[in-house]
Amino acid sequence: MIKKFIDKLLGKSAGGAQGKSRFGKRQEVPAEVHKIDPALVDERAKNVVTTLQQAGYEAYVVGGAVRDLLLGLRPKDFDVATNATPEQVKSLFRRAFIIGRRFRIVHVVYGRGREHEVIEVSTFRASMDSAAAEQVAGNERTSKGELASMKHAVDASGRVLRDNVWGPQEEDAARRDFTVNAMYYDPANQIVVDYHNGIKDAQKLTLRMIGDPATRYREDPVRIIRAIRFSAKLAALGFKMEAKTAAPLVESSKLLADVPQSRLFDEMLKLLQTGHAIATVEQLRKLGLVTGIYPLLDVVVERADSPFVKAALQDTDRRVGEGKPVAPSFLLACVLWADVRDGWAQRIEGRHGQRPQPPFPALQDAIDDVFNARIGDVSGRGKLAGDMREIWMMQPRFDKRTGSTPYSLVEQARFRAAFDFMRLRADVGEVSEAIAEWWQEFSTADDLRRQDLLEQVRDEQKTRQRVRTRDPVAPKPRGEPAGRQQRQDGQQEPQQQDDEVDAESEAVPADGDAAAPRKRRRRRKPRTGGGGGGTGEGGGSAAGE
To answer: Which residues are part of the catalytic machinery?
Structure first.
């Protein structure tokens, strides 16, 4: 044990040559070979690297940004690696924050509001042997107090719970996941430092795990999801996963059961919201992982070919590609809409012996059931759940285009998300295209044009009303309740004679393109016979009936 500790301090290992293979051989690749365009490097990332180097530390752009630069792409995110500790990094920047417990890193923030940019700075970490790490019986949540004082700890399965032991650059490279993500670029002298032939793998379009894949997945099962995400992202460029890297994925996926649900939820969102959602579904099917990653992701894969969910995934990819923001609440609302819609209709119609409910309470109860069955407590029933509920609850309100409803609806904070949701429903034929176009124009029109649009709806309703009154009345089927007649299309129509409008009913989950039916109240006729002249219920006598 003492010998192992001394060898560790000296950067040696018991295997000699095996140790060299594990940590790789440092290669410094000049600009004329790697051909990275310096103009593609973010100025803020350059500033972080320069500031650290001027303070006497090593610093490099690292990870996926280097991979993208080698491929001639402009990276969306830039990470920096350094031999400075998190506290030393924080002291050099005015707006820098240390985050994380499992891996302590620093976020250096530039700008404010939605336009802010974060450069993530990590300290070189030692490649520790899990056998020499401290072991805990529980996980991050159950062993929080015990883990607080530990720098390197694993659970009983070998999964790393703490990894905050600093080390040299070659060991930091060895503990990264894929060879194409383990390169370091110095923008000052334009040299790429490569320990594991990442440049060659990038040229061969190969995604290869550093070290033994099964062992690396056991150390951190979330690497399974990262393998899927990178293979989906790079598939469009022709990348393929190395056979040895892909082989243990299905068997290792069982290890995800020990990962906190909140972390899996976040990783699932990364799979779906980085602009490669459709490609991710294809990779999951190709790798035999259509189920078992995360229950909600299983639903996404199952429904990915349905017109509505497919349209939502494509729309998400398009928005990311155009640099527009995407919200997880919108995509998840689309994925689970079929459950909400079916539960809503079931409650209104009173299926399975249930008592029929009014439309809006029925919709609320259907949403509650979907949250309980599909979302659980992972979202904390916070903003994400609240946004999903608002998107769903606004859908029936789009059917009402009279009075003050349109004005109040467009002022809602979640109107744009709810409208985009309804727009997708129209694209797949669930809602009338005319209604979607009407709301699109109303939401952007001035007051005068809005008045014209409302008048247009009123004229359409009057025209439909006149057509209905001119239609020949079909014979009333035997056994039909009094006061109702049958329309030619087979639907029941309230009797027009002696009726007056009481109030508009709430919308029901039908096609969404027809005006909401109206509740009718029977007008009482004056009594002409004897009796006490009372107008209340029970005012007549039994003999007079």
So the answer is: 77, 79, 177
